[in-house]
């Protein structure tokens, strides 16, 4: 990996723990507004996230829809709150509350290794996002979670969403690097496979409860090329990745 000059990171799930972060805000807001205490907020946030995944992939494949994730999140949220399953929440939250909770995605917390790991990696390589999150969301999140990016790339800037090839190639282009000198860092197999198809190097980071469906098709095991797998490096944390890359210098 000596030839790699830039690391581009998926953000949701790879850099930040979206599930715990949003669920905690939902629970606090539910309590404040008298929503039933047995409401399953983890289920709620998982469904909300699935709406994001479904719509970004559909648009990446040429479907119509907004390229701003704040808008997509709000549309999904409104649909959920109008549904029979979550109507008791919808009745408790007025327009102002809904606008506020939609911005919970701007306030996601990093994994325990995130900040220290990114700081260590920043000393070795260019570090940048490559996320479907819109620009303002990623800027707010960086400030909130103290993420030390050299550059923020949002697919909003490129008029598409991952896993469109345009997203990966555009990031490499703006870094003035060929894909072979950029590595995609992600906790999601589909993201890494899409990056590899464009000639990028790939680094898989194991994160709790991420990519469960994809992992099930692989027996729950992801291996590096050195161990007979498909990705260049497989690690459990950014700190481990920094140690590996530091030794290769």
Distinctive features:
249 residues; alpha/beta; six-stranded parallel β-sheet; 6 strands; globular
What does this structure look like?
This is Haloacid dehalogenase. Belongs to the HAD-like hydrolase superfamily. S-2-haloalkanoic acid dehalogenase family. GO terms for molecular function: hydrolase activity, acting on acid halide bonds, in C-halide compounds; phosphatase activity. Keywords: Hydrolase. This protein is an alpha/beta fold and 249 residues long. It has helices spanning 18-32, 41-60, 69-81, 87-90, 95-102, 114-122, 135-145, 165-174, 189-197, 212-216, 238-247, and strands at 6-9, 126-131, 151-154, 182-186, 201-205, 233-235. It has a six-stranded parallel beta sheet with strand order 3-2-1-4-5-6, sandwiched between helices. Helix 7 (135-145) links the parallel strand 2 (126-131) and strand 3 (151-154). Helix 2 crosses helix 3 (69-81).
